[in-house]
Amino acid sequence: xxxxxxxxxxxxxxxxxxxxxxxxxxxxxxxxxxxxxxxxxxxxxxxxxxxxxxxxxxxxxxxxxxxxxxxxxxxxxxxxxxxxxxxxxxxxxxxxxxxxxxxxxxxxxxxxxxxxxxxxxxxxxxxxxxxxxxxxxxxxxxxxxxxxxxxxxxxxxxxxxxxxxxxxxxxxxxxxxxxxxxxxxxxxxxxxxxxxxxxxxxxxxxxxxxxxxxxxxxxxxxxxxxxxxxxxxxxxxxxxxxxxxxxxxxxxxxxxxxxxxxxxxxxxxxxxxxxxxxxxxxxxxxxxxxxxxxxxxxxxxxxxxxxxxx
Length: 310
Hints:
By secondary structure, the protein is an alpha/beta fold. It folds into 2 domains: 2-241, Spore Coat Polysaccharide Biosynthesis Protein SpsA, Chain A, CATH 3.90.550.10; 253-308, no CATH class. It has helices at 7-19, 35-43, 62-70, 91-101, 126-136, 140-147, 153-163, 187-191, 208-218, 237-241, 253-261, 263-275, 280-284, 287-295, 302-308; strands at 2-3, 26-30, 50-55, 77-81, 85-86, 105-111, 182-186, 222-230, 232-233. α5 (126-136) crosses α6 and α12 (263-275) runs parallel beside α15. The chain is globular.
């Protein structure tokens, strides 16, 4: 688990995680948090599932924090989590089962906020309704309570899964990936620097999780969502609390590196979509494509610009 301030969210994450009935050894890598956050982390050290808490004097960035923590893992699978999520019971065992069912599975993630998931109690998708909750409530606990309709999170989880029985666990790469807020993978794959690109150690934040998914896919592994687990992600809580502007020039360096590295794969995807009848206008509305067009339009590789006709 990677932590960086955002104490309220860290408390929600760890409270729900340690209430889980799954078996795991927890390693926490604190990326230079404030004193209150460190004191809270020390308060959980007595829990038998907390294997180790590492305190860094400064923020080393996402890639370095995760990779250093991974060196202490002694199990075949490792799950990386951020400090702004809420877990149901039995989330881990359900995700682990997908590895036992197929040896080619390289990475598994849960269902999380998406415009493609129906909310179980209202006529809206979960992402849109969550944004409504954020506008009404400022306290994260109250936001979550409004979002779940006041129900227990485990019950909400069951109802959401039931309301979305037809959802597919297959991810199209490009342009999708498993988000780093909760990602389960094979330990040896994560430690393999031919797959887990250490170039991202130069950046504080961004694209390291997507690059890992795409690299696994390129190496022949399956990247899938576990469709019977929903984990709630508060989205960018540490980024917001630490006033890190995602679209600052420095943070876009990771995006420039990523699009340059994967230019050919992205162009192939654009070409396939057009051949299938999808208009260029619709292609530009893809979540990842719209991100790069919005943030680094002038720094995109030349061939990719041509493919997107910008």
